[in-house]
Specification:
The structure is a homodimer of 417-residue chains.
Chain A lengths: L2 H15 L7 E6 L4 H13 L4 E6 L2 H10 L2 H4 L4 H13 L2 E6 L11 H22 L5 E5 L3 H7 L5 H15 L8 H22 L3 E5 L5 E6 L6 E2 L2 E2 L5 E2 L8 E3 L1 E11 L4 E3 L2 E11 L2 E9 L1 H8 L8 E6 L5 H4 L7 H4 L5 E5 L14 H7 L7 E5 L6 E5 L5 E6 L2 E2 L10
Parallel strand pairs in A: 1-2, 1-3, 3-4
Antiparallel strand pairs in A: 5-6, 5-18, 6-11, 7-10, 8-9, 10-15, 11-13, 12-13, 13-14, 15-16, 16-17, 18-19, 19-20
């Protein structure tokens, strides 16, 4: 592969993605299959001035064995040292770089019940440390092709050709081109997003209404005063970072407990190495009350019933059909990409930083304001080329936001035309 | 490569090496380059009944970067969670499987002073937990070829051919043959070793005297009552395991502070990714007082001066020139193999379990009995085809132990003839 562009990508993740500051510690979460790329990212961290780099390797085939052979007791166990490590992370706030590459259905065959029980058990101890990091640490998620993921996306190609094609897709989605500085492209991209958010925020919509031929007929209420966001974000300490690469979504957190109607999935959902396909979810008073899936229905059920908040929505995100990710013309079977090809919702935890003054509120106050709380946050795609979305203001005014899967005229940026 | 024999090797490490007992936790220390073999070993652990398998990945190129870019402060730092993990290891006693594969000079260029300082700093906190595990946990060390290690051993071959040849060497050294059960071979091997140890122990030598044409002229005193060991060992809890695969040495711990004369290296020493070649060390009253090396002299000096005990000897080991490792006809640049091709000594910590009743003694009493203490244990090779070693008993009787690099007649086993 093109080592020059791969190196650019590693540097982009470090500098524009997580934006490592001199002296900071960086944790890199990656599969051992990707050791060469991981070493490149580590080197870029040091070159950017990182004080320490910690590698956190996880190998999906071994994870699968653990789910097969270990007891729920063992899987969900949090020894004191592991809790101490998470406490340390919440105190020291190292940067997190997540490098995804796993086989989208590499955990197929694992008992979803067992997985859910283990996760719940583990999170009973660890969630508070994750919550304590929220809005305070810099993190970014990127992806690199493994043979198995590439073959899932390009089943008719050889492993090598599939990986090469997937690399090209990734480069085009994250704005990496030969002889061009991707940092410029990201700055322009983020600027457009700010403009679009500003327009949406000015309307202060009370609720959104979704309709398409697939069967989605759905209304979701927004939190008064909550803002639309997209692209880069700031930590409470004021460091700018880009949590997702690519990112094409404008999103907010809807009011927990206020959504009505049915949404129909438009793309498969790959959840922790298991695929859920052709599914719908019906909401009443903000809660998922019924659902069905052609494939992976049990896994979908486990997601929705994971905890008290996992049946409610934590995110409403708008992505046009013309996004660069969508334009590759295929599924990635990886949320990081697929969520950027399509309008989507997320079950589970909302983002508190959509609230003005979120940094002066307690977690309890976030919840009271309508931000859903859960140990999961699972995006699922509902956008289609015929999706229409209208925003309705408190005085009953209807505004087209999406028309036939694209931003309505007034929300388009210069470069969209 | 021959997947059947590789699978046998993985199973051998788990069953005969570390001898995993039902419900035990196993930690596998391995490079991410070896993720496929590592997953195979993990699976064999589960099949042997392990309750939990933990992967502990370390990637040498990233370790090298850390030594280059981080401060000694950062390198030697032990955060609370890491100390808690070592405490947990000392309490829970998981099995350790170490899978070596690193480039023998992959850390060339690292400042030995910096490495030493970092290690001393780290060990000030962690050594007590390692000491607490001594003689109590099951562990084994095996090795698999990485491209860089294989090319070091076979510089004139392609990467692929070099790895294939190194695999064949490993198989021959660890008694893995097609259509044969290696467990039988290991049982026979261990039985021979017991016989040889019994004969040596009956003599109760006061000291050994080494001489060869290379310039070694050396006497080392043994601890009265200490035994010669070799092959498998028992934990205090009574579980049998094989700490090294391959193993061809019969060894004991000499009396700390009682060695005189000069020893000349017969093979290069690969220490933590750096090579030391053509060196000698002179001992007075058990301490290394002068030394010199054609290559890597600074590293040798750092080893000898690491701590109070690093200038004294912790091991005396006897290996004939005809050992299967030696018969491959080449250096491995890896102590696990090279120490099994040649008589050697080790600087640093001795093995307390050579003492009768060691399990009823305190660490202080081990030291008083003559077992050297140090945070290092570094083997270096002195055996040659003309090496003669005599044992001298307290009543002045001289017994040939090695004649021209081979066990003297009375110590040979049936199968040697």
């Amino acid at each position: 592969m093109d080592q020059e562009r791969i190196r650019k990508y590693a540097k982009l993740a470090v500098c524009t993605g997580v934006n490592v500051q001199p002296g900071q510690t960086v944790m890199i979460f990656v599969s051992p299959e990707q050791h060469e790329f991981a070493a490149m990212v580590a080197e870029e961290c040091y070159l950017a001035g990182a004080g320490k780099v910690m590698m956190e390797w996880t190998f999906q085939p071994v994870t699968k064995m653990a789910y097969q052979y270990e007891t729920v007791e063992s899987l969900g166990e949090v020894p004191e040292w592991l809790e101490a490590k998470h406490r340390w992370m919440a105190e020291e706030l190292p940067c997190h770089i997540h490098i995804l590459s796993d086989d989208p259905d590499g955990l197929a065959g694992v008992d979803p019940e067992k997985m859910q029980q283990a996760m719940v058990k583990k999170n009973r101890v660890l969630k508070k440390y994750r919550d304590a990091r929220e809005n305070r640490d810099q993190w970014t998620i990127i992806a690199v092709p493994s043979p198995s993921w590439a073959k899932k996306v390009y089943p008719n190609e050889t492993e090598e050709a599939a990986q090469a094609k997937l690399w090209e897709d990734i480069f085009s989605c994250v704005h990496i081109e030969k002889d061009k500085d991707p940092v410029d492209a990201w700055n322009r991209h983020n600027h457009q997003f700010l403009e679009r958010c500003r327009k949406l925020n000015e309307y202060g919509f009370e609720y959104l209404e979704y309709k398409n031929q697939l069967g989605t007929d759905f209304r979701v209420w927004l939190i008064p005063g909550a803002v639309w966001m997209g692209g880069g974000e700031y930590t409470m300490g004021g460091t700018y970072y880009n949590p997702n690469m690519p990112t094409e979504e404008i999103f907010t957190t809807p009011a927990s407990g206020r959504a009505e109607g049915k949404v129909v999935s438009s793309k498969p959902l790959s959840y922790q190495g298991m695929l859920i396909e052709d599914f719908w979810v019906e909401f009443k008073e903000g809660k998922a009350v019924s659902w069905s899936a052609r494939c992976g229905e049990e896994v979908l059920g486990k997601i929705i019933t994971m905890d008290e908040g996992s049946c409610c929505l934590g995110e409403v995100a708008l992505v046009p059909e013309s996004s660069p990710v969508s334009q590759t013309g295929h599924m990635f079977y990886e949320t990081l990409f697929d969520e950027n090809a399509s309008c989507h919702l997320a079950l589970g935890a909302g983002f508190s930083n959509v609230l003005p003054n979120y940094d002066k509120m307690t977690a309890e106050e976030w919840k009271e304001a309508g931000i859903n709380d859960s140990l999961i946050h699972v995006d699922f795609m509902i956008g289609t080329p015929d999706m229409n979305i209208q925003g309705v203001t408190s005085d009953g005014k209807r505004v087209d936001i999406f028309v036939n899967g694209e931003w309505a005229e007034e929300f388009r940026s210069q470069s969209d035309n």
